[in-house]
Amino acid sequence: MSISINNSLSLRIYYGKYASFAKGSARKDAPTGTLSMADASALRNAIKKLQDYKFTDGSDDQNQEKLKAFTDAVNNTLSSATKYGKNDTSVRNAANKIKNLNTEYASKLRQIGITVQKDGSMSLYESASTTYKSERFSEFFDKNSKYLEDLYDSAKRITRRVDVRI
Questions:
Q1: Cα–Cα distance measured from residue 62 to residue 64, given in angstroms and rounded to the nearest whole number
Q2: What gap in Å lies between CA 159 and CA 155, rounded to an integer?
Q3: List of domains in the chain
Q4: pLDDT tens digits, one per residue of 114-165
Q5: Does residue 6 contact residue 62 with C-beta atoms inside 8 Å?
Q6: Quick one: how far is CA 43 from the chain centroid?
């Protein structure tokens, strides 16, 4: 099974009832509020699932697709929340918090193969799971991670503020 198929499956799992918004044309046609809700909910789900995931038990391909799905969820959340935040300061502040968190933790993210761009978005090294030991991923996605706690809180703030009718 290829990574892109796995990644799509992971994203659909993270998106849950909003799975149609994980990728594709449904994203382009979705109301901004619905997309922001879907993306922030997916990010919250991704964080919780990755904190429970045993990277040391996963294969390199499985670990890579989990990391890719996480970076996609973060990037999607940033994109939709920034767009929605043009009319809502609370959502805009939450999106800015995510960007600032990514910048603040850029060196730690780089240690697991994730690069933070100037706009706060992320990209994953194609060979992150084979380059870095799975213990690094487990340590980074630990349940006590301040980064993940703050990221989760920002995503939660977005889901509480968006109006899915917009």
A1: 5
A2: 6
A3: 3-17+29-161 (1.20.120)
A4: 999 999 999 999 999 999 999 999 999 999 999 999 999 999 999 999 988 7
A5: yes
A6: 5
